Amino acid sequence: MPPGAGVFAARPQRATGAAYVCAIFLALGAWVPAQGPLVSRAMSTKAQQTLKIASWNINSVRARLEIVERFLLEYAPDVLCLQETKVVNGSFPEGVFRRLGYNHQVLHGQPMHHGVAILSKVPMRDDDRLDWQANGEARHVGVRLDNGLRIENVYIPAGGEEPDRSVNPKFGQKLDFFERMIDWSAKLDVPTLLVGDFNVAPLECDVWSHKQLINVVSHTAVECELMARLQASHDWVDIGRKFHPAPARLYTWWSYRALDWAKTDRGRRLDHMWASPSVAEKAISHQVIEPARSWARPSDHAPLITEFAL
Q1: Does the N terminus or the C terminus of the chain have fewer Cβ atoms within 10 A?
Q2: What is the DSSP letter of 118?
Q3: What's this model's pTM, rounded to 2 decimal places?
């Protein structure tokens, strides 16, 4: 994209009258009233076009294809970022997504484990796959949309059971993964949306019991500190907490071990959407689709959706 192109850097084209006023409003990212003396209803509709971006750890896309299709039909995001697809690229069920209009697909899979994908109704380009795990695992894929927005989709390692890297190498890999992400994040100079399963619930109100989980992987002090450093490295805005400020309940994951997950409600907020400040300013809503946790053969994660006025 040439310099100055895209939603986040565009300047209004030279125009006159109401068209000029509308261009100014669009460039500033401001809302245009549905009715008013300066702009027509048609211009208002154009100014209020939105982009819905969803993220979901699906825990095997082929095993849960039925609920993925249901989600797309009921909530109709423009872009869907999946984690834990657990399938090689050649076996990804791309036809189901194409039938629903998701003709732009960027995949990064491997057999049986991990895997990420971005499915979109709008064009994507400049895809990359970063190896923050440093062992070739399929845990990241990133793209750029035509409006200049980059979307980075990540599946951070869970980290095993014991929060001690000296006895649990998986925990050490998770900590190192974060350190590499921090180095990457600090150098970012483009408007970016970072989404995925971070496998950390950073705030006390992000878990059902801070006291009982303080020494449990996903909520330990060292993990929460790394999350805070990652957030500070780019001034990321936590979209979830932007719309649902702490201490509001906002879980995204409930263990399969619970006989009645909704009744016990022992949840954690492991899935996140973080945005560059210029992108966060354009966010107009964020929701966790909690009912999906009760659908047939569910993932243990619920999908997230953020809508942007672009």
Answers
A1: N
A2: E
A3: 0.85
